[in-house]
Automatic annotation (TrEMBL):
PANTHER family: HTH-TYPE TRANSCRIPTIONAL REGULATORY PROTEIN GABR (PTHR46577), TRANSCRIPTIONAL REGULATORY PROTEIN (PTHR46577:SF2). This is PLP-dependent aminotransferase family protein. Residues 11-79 form the HTH gntR-type domain. CDD domains: AAT_like. The keyword Transcription regulation applies. The keyword Transcription applies.
Length: 470
C-alpha cells in the first residue's frame, strides 16, 4: 500500500498515515474485517519507522476505524460513514463538521473558511498582548452591553458602512446565532408569525420553531426576497418580523438590490413589522452594496453580525445594533441566561480592530475569495453546472449538476469523500432540492474538481452562467 507520504509537508507523518489509510478505506469500500498490511510491511514499503505506523493505527483504533485482533494484526472496524442526512450547521452529530472527521472528508458546502486559510500569527500576538497587559480580561466578566473598548471599535466600523448607531445601541453576543436567539426571546412568543427567506439559514428556522413561532416562507431571488410573494403574505398575515440576509446571502450568494430594499422599508412602516438583517459575511464586501440598516428606517431594522466567519469561530464574538429599548431587553436576558460574554475574547477582537490587523486581514481574504470565486465559476461553466446567480463576492455559489441526478451525485460524493450541503437542508420543511451550497474556499481541492467533472453531462447544451429561477 503506497501511502504517498510527503516528508516536506507541514502535516506530521503520523497524521499523513492516518489520512492515507482512511482514504484507502473510503475509496476501496473495504468491509469490516478486511485485514490491513502488517505494520512491518507498511513501514518497509513506505520507508517509515514501525513506531510511526503503530501510533497511526492506534489513533485509528481510538477513532473506531480499525480494530486490533490477536494474531491477525489490524482490520477495518467499520465502513465509511454516510453523512449526507440532516446536513446543516447545527447538526453536529449528523455530519461532524465542527471537527475533522476520521476519514478526512472535504466539507465542500460548509459555512466557514478552511483552517489552511486562517492566519494565526496576528491572532496569537493579540492573545499574548491581552494576557500580558489586561489581567481583568483573563478573569472578569464583561459588562452587560459588552466590553466598552470593543463597542467603540464596532461603532467606528458601523459608521464606516453608514449604519447609524451609538454606543448604547450596540450589544455584544456569543456570535450571530446567540444574537438571533436573544432577539427571538425578546421580541417573539409562541404563536407569533415571522417571514423567512427560502432557501436560508437552517439554524434560524430551528431556533424559531423551537420557540413555537410560525414561519412564512418567501423565495429568495437574485435581488432579494420575491416581492410579489411577500406582499401577498402581508395581505393575509400580520408577521412580527422579517429575517433577511442582505449581503452575500447564505446559501445563494446573492445580494439585495436598492429597489427591493426601499420597498421592504416601505412595507415595514406600513404593516408594522421589524426587519432583522444578518450581515455575517458583510466584511467580505469589495464593491458598492445595499444594506437596509444603512438606509433611513426609523428603528425598524435590527443589524446582526459577527467575526466567526472571517476571523475565528473559536472566539465567538458577535454583536447587535438596535433601538435602545430592544437592546435593554436583550442585555437583561443576556445577563440572566449567561451573566455576560467573554471579556477576553472581546478584548482580543478589540485589539485586532484597533491596530488595523483585522482590516488588513479582511482585505487579503477578499482578494483570495474573489480569485477563487472566479475560478470556481469557470469550472462550473466548463462542466455545465447550473448556477442560480453569479455572486458579486463572498464565499458561496448555489449550483446544481446539469443532469440533476441526485442519487448519482450522492454516490459520487461518498466515493470521493466530499460532504455536500444539499438544498433540502436550507428550507424549513426540508423539501427535496437538487441545489447545492458550494463554498469556493474548498472548491480548488482535487476531490471537488473531480466531483464537478464527474457530474458534468457531456450532452448538455445549456448555458450555465446565467440567472435562473429556482
Amino acid at each position: 500500500m503506497d501511502l504517498g507520504i510527503d516528508r516536506q509537508a507541514l502535516v506530521p507523518v503520523v497524521q499523513q498515515i492516518v489520512s492515507a489509510v482512511a482514504q484507502w478505506i473510503r475509496k476501496s469500500g473495504a468491509s469490516p474485517g478486511t485485514r490491513l498490511p502488517s505494520i512491518r510491511q507498511l513501514a518497509l514499503d513506505n520507508l517509515l519507522s514501525q513506531s510511526s505506523v503503530i501510533e497511526a493505527f492506534e489513533r485509528m483504533v481510538a477513532q473506531g476505524l480499525l480494530a486490533s485482533r490477536q494474531g491477525s494484526g489490524f482490520v477495518v472496524a467499520q465502513p465509511p460513514v454516510c453523512l449526507e442526512g440532516h446536513w446543516y450547521e447545527g447538526a453536529e452529530l449528523g455530519w461532524g463538521a465542527y471537527v475533522d472527521g476520521p476519514l478526512g472528508e472535504l466539507k465542500l458546502g460548509c459555512g466557514w473558511l478552511p483552517d489552511t486559510w486562517r492566519e494565526s500569527d496576528d491572532l496569537c500576538y493579540a492573545i499574548r498582548e491581552i494576557s500580558r497587559t489586561d489581567t481583568a480580561g483573563l478573569f472578569n466578566y464583561s459588562t452587560p452591553l459588552g466590553l466598552p473598548a470593543l463597542r467603540e471599535q464596532l461603532l467606528k466600523r458601523l459608521t464606516q458602512i453608514k449604519v447609524g448607531t451609538c454606543l448604547d445601541r450596540i450589544l455584544t453576543t456569543h456570535g450571530a446565532g446567540h444574537a438571533q436567539d436573544l432577539l427571538i426571546r425578546s421580541l417573539l412568543k409562541a404563536g407569533d408569525t415571522v417571514v423567512v427567506e427560502t432557501p436560508g439559514y437552517a439554524n434560524l428556522y430551528r431556533q424559531l420553531e423551537r420557540h413555537g413561532v410560525t414561519l412564512l416562507e418567501v423565495p429568495r431571488t437574485v435581488g432579494g426576497p420575491d416581492m410579489p410573494v411577500l406582499e401577498q403574505l402581508l395581505l393575509r398575515h400580520r408577521p412580527k418580523c422579517l429575517f433577511i440576509n442582505c449581503l452575500y446571502h447564505n446559501p445563494t450568494g446573492t445580494s439585495l438590490c436598492r429597489a427591493v430594499a426601499e420597498r421592504l422599508l416601505e412595507l415595514s412602516r406600513r404593516d408594522g413589522f421589524l426587519i432583522i438583517e444578518e450581515d455575517v459575511y458583510g466584511d467580505l464586501q469589495h464593491a458598492s452594496c445595499t444594506r437596509l440598516s444603512a438606509l433611513p428606517h426609523d428603528d425598524r431594522v435590527i443589524y446582526v453580525s459577527s467575526f466567526s466567519k472571517t476571523l475565528s469561530s473559536a472566539l465567538r464574538v458577535g454583536y447587535v445594533s438596535a433601538g435602545t429599548d430592544i437592546v435593554a431587553k436583550m442585555a437583561s436576558l443576556k445577563t440572566l441566561t449567561g451573566i455576560g460574554t467573554s471579556r477576553f475574547a472581546e478584548a482580543v477582537v478589540a485589539t485586532l480592530l484597533a491596530n488595523g490587523t483585522y482590516r488588513k486581514w479582511v482585505q487579503r481574504l477578499r482578494k483570495r475569495l474573489n480569485a477563487q470565486m472566479a475560478a470556481t465559476l469557470q469550472v462550473l461553466e466548463d462542466e455545465e453546472w447550473q448556477v442560480f446567480a453569479v455572486p458579486a463576492g463572498g464565499m458561496f455559489v448555489w449550483a446544481r449538476p446539469g443532469l440533476g441526478d441526485h442519487s448519482r451525485l450522492q454516490a459520487c460524493a461518498r466515493r470521493l469523500g466530499v460532504l455536500l450541503s444539499c438544498g433540502a437542508l436550507f428550507t424549513p420543511r426540508g423539501e427535496h432540492s437538487d441545489w447545492l451550497r458550494i463554498n469556493v474556499a474548498y472548491a480548488a481541492d482535487q476531490r471537488a474538481l473531480e466531483l464537478f467533472r464527474a457530474m458534468g453531462p457531456a450532452r448538455s447544451t445549456s448555458t450555465i452562467l446565467k440567472t435562473t429561477s429556482m
